[in-house]
Amino acid sequence: MNLLEQFGIIPIDFNTLKAVFSEYRYPKDKVSLMEKNGELIRLKKGLFIVSPDIHRMTISKELIANHLYGPSYISCENALSFYKLIPERVYTTRSITLKRSRSFSTSLGNFDYVSAPRGYYQIGICQEIVNDRYAYLIASPEKAICDMIMTTKGLRLQSVKAMQIYLEENLRIDFSSVAAFDIQIIRQCIDAGRKKTELTQLYKLLER
């Protein structure tokens, strides 16, 4: 069995790889060779993922995003698409982080991170467990909409009607699922975050 197969789709750092290949005189050269041969895919300096040719599994961009820059959780269009609240296929993986905002371009796609204050960040985070094999952090549906509002520059929604138009026409939200929303998550975001006016209009709209 290829020694890399044990890691599956979990991103691995250089120190872990160095330990795996400790019997080699120059583990760094071994890692470089495996990257050159396509057995390892570099995500950023010191972080890799094993090629699907070895583990024969589908790579999770959500899992990569959590490991690439953290603490962070999947949100915005990606979370809304995951919950089937918007119809669009999303190509850039967007996350919210406690660190400064940053973007990464990898061979597996682009990853964007938007900074949020701790009090706001910690609201409405869910753990998604996939086939009992791995897990990643993702915003709840309610938090994902709040994050869209919080991270969209120049967005001014001063009324419930304006909020409804934004959700229906700009985001194309499927309102058939909105009835099950926990609006207390939105209330917590209002208390902790910025754009209180916009989030208040969202709360009022979903409260009806």
Can you give a write-up of this model?
- This protein has helices at residues 14-20, 27-36, 52-55, 61-68, 76-82, 118-121, 141-151, 160-170, 183-192, 196-207; strands spanning 12-13, 40-44, 47-50, 72-74, 93-97, 102-106, 109-115, 125-130, 134-139.
- The strands form three sheets. It has a four-stranded mixed sheet with strand order 4-5-7-6. A three-stranded antiparallel sheet has the order 1-3-2. It has a two-stranded antiparallel sheet with strand order 8-9.
- By secondary structure, it is α+β, with helices and mostly antiparallel strands.
- 40% of the residues lie in helices and 21% in strands.
- Helix 5 (76-82) packs antiparallel against helix 7 (141-151), helix 8 crosses helix 10 (196-207) and helix 9 runs antiparallel to helix 10.
- It folds into two domains: 3-55; 61-207, no CATH class.
- The chain is elongated and about 65 Å long.
- The model has no long low-confidence stretch (mean pLDDT 92).
